[in-house]
Amino acid sequence: MSSGGTEGLFAKKTLEITDDVLLSYKNQGGFDLLGRTVDQIRTTEQVNAAMSTCCDLSLDGLIIIGGVTSNSDAAQLAETFATHNCKTKVIGVPVTLSGDLKNQFVETTVGFDTVCKVNSQLISNICLDAVSAGKYYYFVRLMGGKASHVAFECALQSHPNMVILGEEVALSKLTLMEITNKICEGVEARAAQGKYHGVLLIPEGLIESIPEMYALIQEINNLHSNNVPEDEIPSQLSPWAAALFKFLPPFIRRELVLHQESDNSAQLSQIDTEQLLAHLVEAEMNKRTKEGNYYKGRKFSSVCHFFGSQARGSLPSNFDCNYAYVLGHICVQIVAKGLNGYMATVTNLKDSINKWRCAAVPLTAMMSVRRHLRGPGAVPIGRPVIHPSPIDLKAESYGVLREKASSFLLDDFYRTPGGIQFEGSGADTKPITLTIEGQDYLGDIEILQDYLEKVRIILKPGCSREILKAAISSMASVNDVLKVMSAPLNAELPLYHFS
Fold this sequence. Notes:
It comes from Panicum hallii var. hallii. This is Phosphofructokinase domain-containing protein. The protein is α/β, with parallel strands linked by helices. Helices cover 48% and strands 10% of the residues. The protein is built from 19 helices and 10 strands.
């Protein structure tokens, strides 16, 4: 095993995993056994260093554990290894706390259930404290970059008064002030019922979903890419961006100009979006109070929290433990079969373990071409990657949240899931979004194969001409429909495969 993250892999720093070594880490939280460094294997130098280590150690397989970025890099490694006749097979495993590696093959990721359970317990504690004090609004920011899955799942588990998802904001193109007014309207509606407290959830990626903030962040990122020093960035902004930048509170200005992450994106975890919203809402509520539109003798008060990656230090849930063990066994089988550039996957996770369906899926089946460039050293145009999957606003689980939104807002319908249980009635609960959606891609393929087999039996030689004509007409219609539905997807698929 590589010790010390990707830097350890490049430097040939390894650790043999024995029963004794694993004993103190088994079923524990954290990343400290594997280690973590730059989170990427992308440049020519990094790829060559990884290949050199694998060849020198004569490894049969290299298992890349991570989310969309790590598994995109795994695909590049697999292609490079095959091209250079390196015997090491590269396998990806879906592990990310934010849950944004999600598609027809990957129903959820290892770590997501644990993080949501830990955060939901903390949120429920805050909800009970809010109703106990009766005078504070809690603004809680949760981890999640371009997708709001953690905030979404935690809202279903803990029932806060309000949740604002990045996908909703992006779809409706809500401005910063429109979001502020939306929150204020909720505060006024609760005040009309004599309630002067509440809990609001937001994802850390929300700020990039707001149109004008996204444009400002893009300008700042471009200046970073051109090596403009942080203290000179404000003076280099375009007039409209400079005006928006000046409008923002000083603490947000400082955070927006922080140096970028390794993938050339803004440091979302360092931008206190919850404090920005609390600041704007408080200013607006004070204004409405003076105008007599709020409540007399009351002052809007807010308390802010950010629950980031700390939840990964928790003991993992039973579901995550079982899921990780099964994926580990699949990886062994993939390497033993000599497959390269595959991801270990499990479907039908909503059901009991004995009904889970295990598979190896080509990483290319999850990839599409990135259409833009974000400055020097960024991912080039045309490089196939696995993209983060946003919340599907047409999904049944989102419909459940919308259906309950009014009750959550006004009724203090708080839910207390409690801590992670390893025995008892709550021990084997799974993410609510997972149980509602009930996706089983491999199961659906089996159903399709059963239908095709039945058609083959019905249409065996000797069947009547009428049946044959009906079959031809039906299959032609099916073919036309599938062509139309699959055309946009096929246009995005990369034009290469692994050896």
